Amino acid sequence: MDGNHGAERYETVIIGGGQTGLATGYHLARLGRSFVILEADRRVGDVWRRRWDSLHLFTPARHDGLPGWGFPAKGWSFPSRDDMADYLEAYAARFDLPVRTGMPVDGVTGDGHGGYVVTANGHRFEADNVVVATGPYQVPTIPAFASRLDPGIVQLHSSEYRGPSQLRDGGVLVVGAGNSGAEIAIESAGQHQVWLSGREVGAIPFRMGGLASRLLLERLVLRGVFHRLLTVRTPMGRKMRARMGSRGTPLIRIRPEDIPAAGVERVARVTGVKDGLPVLEDGRVLEVANVVWSTGFHHDFSWIDVPGLGDGEPSHRRGVVDGQPGLYLVGLHFLYAMSSAMIQGAGRDAEFIARHIAARVPSARPAAAEPVGA
After folding, report:
1. Per the domain annotation, does 1 fall within a domain?
2. Residue 358 lies in a domain
């Protein structure tokens, strides 16, 4: 792109065409607002297509739909990554959402008049509101000492992991014992000796086998605890929010006993490197050929150049950024509730933001973009 495009004006620019960006667009469309969704990838859903081959969602399909359209699968099945990707693409088409693909956003700045300028792939967009829907999976977190591991050891972050074929012959250390780490460890154990390092993150207290346990999962955990009890409005929710950064989400689809049953050995936290090999908190040195870092992600909002935004997550109330009228966040871990970064929480958070936007300017602008300076 040569960067000579005329600017386009919308009431709202949504950055990110994942589940929360699409849900926000759905609610804005129902309110008759003018908006565009900018998606970095060439296809809606590609962020899911890049995840590991055997990935299935941790929650059943009946809780994996976005507002207006339930997930088209058996209610107690667990959709694959491709199922989810295709659903998101079909969702955008079903509701004719104005998604512009191939639009990685370069930056967001103020326009000097209370609005914002968004630049993406040589294009310029002007808006009264910007919704950052890039989600929680932004920059992979890998400890600094990883660079001191023997260069012959294969190192992958979970975001790069596709399957056991990427691994060398020899032992595999998976670092991070949350849902992703546990599933990668179990899958790798079919062909390798595997160690899983990390603190216990807990698990739902039953298996999802019979009808009774499914109803407990649905009514007690997903709709109850995750969605209504553990929110920023409750003392228990605020305490859990503070802990989640270090402990991760409880295991949902697998059980802690499934890990040793698959032949995976649980070990202490990795704290450093000795002679090119990982060292555990208890002093044990593991002779491994592979390390998979399932150690999560951290935010990078450095491309948003507005006053008051520093490192880390901006201060906000349910995604309404403090001190920056018209700037919003959706899809982050515990934005409002424990369910906020799950598919089932996307619709509620998106609706709150859409209604907040509508309340700022009661009369909507025309749905079509207005060329500016073309």
Report:
1. no
2. yes
What range does the domain containing 75 cover? 7-138+299-372
Residue 312 CA: distances (Å) to CA of 64, 87, 302, 343: 28, 31, 9, 23
Nearest 5°: the CA angle 321, 327, 328 is 70
Tell me the three state secondary structure of residue 307. Answer: coil
**Which of the listed residues 293, 322, 348 is the one where a domain comes to its end?**
293
pLDDT reported for residue 231: 83
Q: Between the ranges 59-68, 196-205, 213-222, 273-282, where is the mean pLDDT highest?
A: 273-282
Same structural domain, 54 and 131? yes
- The domain spanning residue 28 has which CATH number? 3.50.50.60
Phi, psi of 144 (to 5 degrees): -60, -35
| Cβ within 8 Å of residue 308, ≥6 positions away | 314, 315, 322, 323, 324
* Same domain? 105 vs 225: no
> In angstroms, rounded to a whole number, what is the distance separating the alpha carbons of residues 8 and 11?
10
One domain for residues 110 and 163:
no
- Residue 308: CB atoms within 10 Å: 11
Residue-level length of the chain: 374
pLDDT of residue 68: 97
The DSSP code sequence of 212-276 is HHHHIIIIIIIIIIIIIISBTTSHHHHHHHHHHHHH-PPB-SS-TTHHHHTTEEEEPPEEEEETT
